[in-house]
Amino acid sequence: MAYQLLKGKKGIIFGALDDKSLAWRTALRCYEEGAALVLTNAPVALRLGEINKLALNVKAPVIAADVTNMEDLKKLFEGAMNHFGGKIDFILHSVGMSLNIRKNKPYTGLDYGFNQKTLDISAVSLHRVLQTAYEMDAINEWGSVVALSYIAAQRVFPDYNEMSDAKALLESIARNFGYYFGVKNKVRINTISQSPTKTTAGSGVKSFDGFQAYAEKMSPLGNASADDCAGYCATLFSDLTRMVTMQNLFHDGGFSFTGVTEAIILEIEKNHEEIIK
Predict the structure, then answer these.
(1) Among 108, 115, 195, 207, which is most exposed with the fewest C-beta within 10 angstroms?
(2) What is the sign of the dihedral through the CA atoms of 185, 240, 218 and 230?
(3) pTM metric for this prediction
């Protein structure tokens, strides 16, 4: 059900690759809620993904931009404002990549060149986006920026590797820029710590299915789906959340504040009994 929460609002969605991605689902939901959109991703992602199909569905132009390139980002914001005929109201940052994970390098044996790229693409890119928007005065008063994070920024999930560090940095950037943007023109900036969601990127993490199954049993409400996340993003882009900023918001069915569940205890006891037998 749509509520027209974003009627008249204009936004940029970073990171839509295919219909499994959180950015893709969020773009669909924002469009359903009345928003006008611009879609963007890196040139290589545009070639490999299916973003043009999404663009047709949400009636949005696609502007290529490498999030590590300031000139690309400037052109993106210029293109978006030309398309909209003015400033934008919201941004979704859904960008992440780890070469160390792709190359099966453990956290204790990182390639530091790969690590630098991970941090630059997955975290510092948010700073680049925000700095570009800040300098260009590209976001309307009471606008909203959301970046997608994960609880591994606060807790150890071994196979999440260096992405844990990247998400911690991402959340720090959101807090710090949230202060400056709030003072400048009431723009709020938040991160969402989403349940493990089987996106194309997430599925590349070793033992991802185990992460997801564990979280499902540890969450009183179960895991939040990609569409659930899209709906939550829409509320944060709307005028209903004007006073929420500089927060890391857990959207995980209660996982983040649950010590243990009966389902987990029963699973452990069952496995223990089988070992004894």
Answers:
(1) 108
(2) negative
(3) 0.94
